[in-house]
Queue: 3 jobs
Job 1
Amino acid sequence: MKLRLSSLLTVMLLSLGLVVLVSPAPPAWACSCVSFDEQDERAELIVVGTVTDVSDSGIRMTVESVEKGAAAADNLRLKVGRGEASCGYDFRAGGRYRVNSVDGATGLCTGVSPLPAAVSVPPAAAPVAAPVAESSAWGWWLAAGAGVAVLAAGLVIARRRG
């Protein structure tokens, strides 16, 4: 019985290790921020717009819409650090973004989301829904199948030895 139990335990540990190896890792950030879930609550200003200028001191953007707070003008300047390692953001001139701001500054910790370019739709045309990205669940199925196969092989080996 000892041999069977140890073989089963070994197979289970190997299966668990395989699942961990195949599992996708969450993104790693070099800077540490407050919870990303709280970014909209903490933001003083949330705007959607197109970045017109990127400099060492920050960005300038044309505001398309204001979701929270009040933008003083259609042309907004925000301070931002360069590079995600310093919790800044690498904005691209001409890019469209949803940007959260606190005290006139933005970055990874305050909240930045790149958006698709604005598309002008003729008044007579109905808006077209964007396609939904497919889930990458195949990795989980592969890991589960491999784990079951390893477990079954371990049981067969344990039976033959016992």
Job 2
Amino acid sequence: MKHFLILVSIITFISCGSTKVAYDYDEQIDFTQYKTYNFMTDMDSGLSQLDLNRLLDATEAVLQSKGFTKSITPDLLINIIADQYEDVQRNSVGVGIGGGSYGGGVSVGAGFPLGGNKNHQTITLDLVDAQKDILVWQAVSDSNIAINTNPQDRVSYFTKIANKIFDEFPPGE
């Protein structure tokens, strides 16, 4: 049982290693003007409440480590949208048997799939200027996700996602 838990932890760690993040932002914005943040109250993230809380906690920790403060009158409002999908593997190995002579022949072939389907999660995180109500920065992450993991591994997963998402924020630093 101990070896199984170690294996699950390794798989979870590896699955998060393939996180890709794309960034976009308004180049006209001076991001040094932003010092405070809060989360949108009407956020429909697509995550379970438990996972949303994990991601919110991780996001707060990263922003606070960058000098931002949570406020009831924030400079930036944060919106989170998550989606999950299954990537169907189309790679296979073919095996064939053939034979024949003098113009006649028989053959049999079969394809065996390589690997299994992978579950992916896309998380879009928007930063909106609270005063102007305009999107100023956006990150979209896409990563492999293990569906059946324990709460500690989920905390670790969302912590790594938040760190990766805010790696390039604020722009120009």
Job 3
Amino acid sequence: MYEVHPGVQMFFYDAESIRRELGPHGEIELSEIDEATPGGGTFPFINVVCRTE
């Protein structure tokens, strides 16, 4: 976990660690997102949707 700005916490996972930690709690859907940065580049994110029964 990193606090990039006061009050803004970011957690960094790869797809395997997401499945390992969240998989036991329900169905997981992952999709990759390239977020545009002010400098014109992109920053990769993984969008996670976890559904429980």
